[in-house]
Amino acid sequence: MEMKLTIKRVPTVVSNYQEEGAAADAANDRPRAGCGRDCLGDCCLPDSKLPLYAFKASPKKPSSQEDAANTDFFVNLLLGLWEDKMARGLFRYDVTACETKVIPGNLGFVAQLNEGRHLKKRPTEFRVDRVLQPFDAAKFNFTKVGQEEVLFQFENGGGDDSFFLKSAPISVADRAPNVVAINVSPIEYGHVLLIPRVLDRLPQRIDQESFLLALHMAAEAASPYFRLGYNSLGAFATINHLHFQAYYLTVPFPVEKAATKRIFLAEGVMNSGVKVSKLMNYPVRGLVFEGGNSLNDLASVVSSACIWLQDNNVPYNVLISDCGKKIFLFPQCYAEKQALGEVSQELLDTQVNPAAWEISGHIVLKRRSDYEEASEASAWRLLAEVSLSEERFEEVKAYIFDAAGLVQSDEEEVSEDEDAAAYTPVSIAPAVAEGCLVLQ
Questions:
Q1: The domain that contains 223 carries what CATH number?
Q2: Is residue 420 part of a domain?
Q3: 20 to 30 A Cα–Cα from 282, which one of 77, 154, 312, 355?
Q4: Catalytic residue among 216, 241, 243, 362
Q5: Is Transferase one of the keywords UniProt gives this record (predicted)?
Q6: Mind listing the pLDDT tens digit for each residue in 260-291?
């Protein structure tokens, strides 16, 4: 008999249309003349006009100072439009007023005091034992979002240059549009959602096409401070409608500073140019993919790994870093342990749901006492609970390599960081002290 694991959860409200009243209309899954809300459903979107950002087909490095200056265009545009939404009162609180600090220690975890993020949330039943679940039109999804929350369409322009149009018709003849919308409960400045092919109602499931789209967004941003994250179901995604998150934070994430060890690959197996490493001396075990002859090559390798994880019911989180050139992949087991009663009550009382941002080292706290007492030791203890065991991680890694066409060579792995062997992690107590960390 199949056992169904569930957790009573309080998901973050990402849209002003997520409340029960605004989200009650499930009729958006059939075409209509219009529901009067200017939503992103079939009833309204095909006849609408929205701003359009058309990205270049093949990102290339800037060859001149003028080209380098132009790389700021996407980030400046996105942040300007985001601030306009803030001025119009579309956010549930002012995230720019939240206090932020770097916690002293070797890794420099980032703590933010965000007392507004936990307000006005609706309880729900969240199944955590299935990474892949069918799309349910009756539940909240992004077709129910109002168009006033959208910044722009995000489409491949097909040429060597990017361009922006303040208004462009929605073309649904060939494919559903990709849209970038605000997260009305932002974690950080510029927090947005990238929703691939919104009218196709895709469940939260990565494929190569959607992952490549996310890499293009990171490449267009061309800023090390603009990252994208992805959470699978079972790894604290709260909405089963395909989406990535992104925001702008002008400090390095701890995981970006962590030591890595290169995994040498057998020659002749593949010609993608993708390099693979594993994180060292970091509380969550993970793989790092970087390089590649093209964004498509990198997307192909990493999406193949993600597809194996989701097809085999392994929850995972992804961080897209370094302008789309470096990807961190974290298989995790925290929600499963939580559902099975294997997480201590002290840790549960912190109400921490470690997803991509928390695992990467950006810790959002809802109470001032937690913020003031946050330490590297408490962050490390929490994240260590998220990680697969060494044995399980190596087993999953072997399956991932096989799925991605990677073959590890017999050559000895070497550290990419001279300090890898020098750093000793903080000692880990059996339980987290009260009031340590994070609310997702």
A1: 3.30.428.70
A2: no
A3: 312
A4: 243
A5: yes
A6: 999 998 875 567 899 999 999 999 999 999 99
